[in-house]
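To: structure subgroup
Subject: Chain for Friday's discussion

All,

I'm putting the inputs and outputs inline so they're searchable in the archive.
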Amino acid sequence: MSFEGEVVLVTGGAGGLGAATVRKLHAEGASVVIADVNDEPAQQLADELGNKVVYVRTDVLDDDSVNAALAKADELGTLRYAVIAHGGIGVLEKIVNRDGSPHSSKGFTDTIALYLTGTYNVLRLTAAKLATQEKKANGERGAIVMTSSIAGFEGQMGQSAYSAAKGGVISLTLTGARDLSSVAVRLNSIAPGTMRTPLLELLGEEALDKFATNIPFPKRLGTPDEYASLAAYLLENTYINGEVVRIDGAQRFQTR
């Protein structure tokens, strides 16, 4: 399948997994809306790739903001696909800390809001948009890929907020796919393991090598390009629906 002539929305498209996805889909012919809040890298990427890629500053928790990104997609053609790949805050805190204090309520609710509520918000608004499109020759109107994490299956100590949010995305996948079957829209999720994103690279090579020791094979971190290839595949394979696909080199997170 070629993405020539198709329009795709990518949240978190300014960096890491999202930017790799924008590049991949653009290279395969798609027009792409980068939905992000990191203005400078997002605009630089849009300028680099040309007039088939546009940046719209997008707060995934704000309806008007998401709808503005969807409206921009209309200017490029017919929106068919979305990849929800935004990241952001990371709260590393046990439910009860060593000093006996409880996990901060705000840290938990903010993490749930960004990774789960924000994902759901983009999902529902994008799916509503796709439901108005004419069906393609294959009978579907479009497809959406969400991003979970293997932490949603086996979270480590201190990841209770993040694991709960990503576990919510995992649970949402099959239920969402069933909900969207009536409007001919597919829904899948990717659960990455430890990926070599620009943010993680800030920790340095020694730390990255240590992370890789618990990955069976290949004994290295995953790359954003590998995530992007999987996202594109899930968009194009019309019989994959309601699935959460791990991309982790057979890694299983240990206790800590």
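Points worth raising on Friday:
Residues 105-130 form the longest helix (26 residues).
Helices lie at 16-27, 39-49, 63-76, 105-130, 160-180, 198-201, 205-212, 224-236.

D.
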